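Q: Could you fold this chain for me?
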Amino acid sequence: MIYLLAGFLLFVGVLLIVRWAAYAPPGDVVSLLYKLGGVACLMLAGFFLIRRQWVVAMPLAVFAWSLLRKKSYLAGADQESGRGSTVRTAALEMTLDHDTGIIIGQVLAGSFEGRELDSLAEAELGSLWHEVGGDKESRDLLEAYLDGRYPDWRESFNIDPAAREGRTSDSGPMTQEEAYQVLGLAAGASEAEIVDAHRRLMKRLHPDHGGSTFLASKINAAKSVLLGKHD
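A: Sure. Below is the predicted structure, expressed as structure tokens.
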């Protein structure tokens, strides 16, 4: 019974780690792997130490210590380099992780207010798509998310081409604050940082490379807004 319970807890733990790793920054995932590897090596070293097999135990302990130390260096590097781009509309807010390319989003208004997009089933996303139909930017942003999660969503939702017409226009000119968020930069970033961020994001999101036309247009607009203040 004890072994059965231990096996069940181990299985649940592995599932939780896999789910977390699917959305965590790469640096955090690598850091966790180093930590788990270090702990496992320490336990194995302890086992050989109890059996007085010093020749095996000591190298394992040293190796385990090196793995545990690597964790802090990787975590620090990830905190320095990890950035994200945030795009916000009347109904949605989405963030693109620069390192992983993963897009996460939250519903800001409507029937699904407060829900994470990842928590919505396909049918619920279809309802949300129709619900934000009057807001062009919100629907375009949602479609960028759907393209990544359900590539064939247009067929699944049975979209009537007429439903895509008559949407409201864009919300207005992008502000500098929004532009910094879109490029994932801190306010006051230099021109070189703006150009570099734009270049890196366009490589990932350019429509010619299977990216999002809407997000690419936002990135271009952000660059124009921020470089305009340098003229």
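A (continued): Strands lie at 84-88, 92-97, 103-107.
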